[in-house]
Amino acid sequence: MKYVVCVPDGCADEPHPDLGGRTPLEVADTPVLRALAARGEVGRAAVIPAGMPPGSDVGNLSILGFDPAEFHTGRAPIEAASLGLKLRADQVAYRCNLSTVDPDAGGPDGLMVDFAGGHPSTEAAAEVVAALDERFGRGAGEGLEFHPGVQYRHIMVAPKEWVDAECTPPHDLTDRPAVRPTGAVGDRLWDLMVASREVLAGFPEVGANQVWLWGQGFQPRLPSFAETYGLRAGMVTAVDLVRGLGVLTGMEVVDLPTATGWYDTDYEGKRDVALDALRDGADLFVIHVEATDEAGHAGNVEEKVRALENWDRRILSGLVEGLDAMGDWRLLLLPDHPTPLHLKTHTSDPVPYLLVDSRADGAGGVLTEPGVADRPVVDGHSLMRTLVEA
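Now predict its structure.
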């Protein structure tokens, strides 16, 4: 038996006027997905437990089968793990976005113009992070470290005393007034964020003009996926956060240079590395694509619909054929949270899920938000056990 988990990040949505009061899942031309839903089981899952922040860290932890209420310690330390960083007990990690804030608009702290800083290239961003580390980090000898990640997503490591702050995720502020951190070290964080503008001014080719610090926490101790579920598992993603969860749970994370966290990611490449890994002995493989989430944050209706259609014609069609050639298989597909286009940020609402077994047809259904509205809500972290133990 082979198992595949498909994660179209943030694809769940709400009715949108530009789509005639429908959602992207309702509008997108996805014949393969419709056929799978007609032969499978559809339902609703609470991937974000009550009271927890609706982020990809919490949602993907649920999808991998680990209860976030038990294991979640923060977003940034998960991403730090993806970069190979092993935090000491006296260190805390912060997510360090390269962002664009207009200091003269929105309010006293400015306006969040772009939480992703124009999506700089990874190479250009690495030069910025090196300059930040020289100015404020290891070059300054204050116990801070700046580590480059992918595009706009990077990591700052700080002494554990820096953990006491309330920070607003920048993607919650798109086109809204910026909100400075609060708490014991809130002012220190804000002073650092404002001071970073001097460094970013030296890189006019990068669309960002400052850093945004958030998502802090200590490195979690997650159990091994293989020991928990008895399966050899792999993963492909272009997002450090999701990669970090794979690293922390002992999954085999496949590097795909053509994979990006943007609309232009290599859909076929992700499909093919999944099939290759399963043929080479992996029992379970996770395919994660960020494009739907990015479109949601941008409020880009056309790109969100297109990303769902790319999932269908560039991943699912060939994936099903490849799995059929290997024998029996089961597939789970669901997003890690909704990212409604009109809100441009995440919500905690339950998401639609699809479970398909090649050996037997299920009750069938329609994988859309209205299509599962009358289904009972199951715990998101329970679905992995449902997938692999049937």
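The domain at 84-217 is CATH 3.30.70 (Alpha-Beta Plaits).
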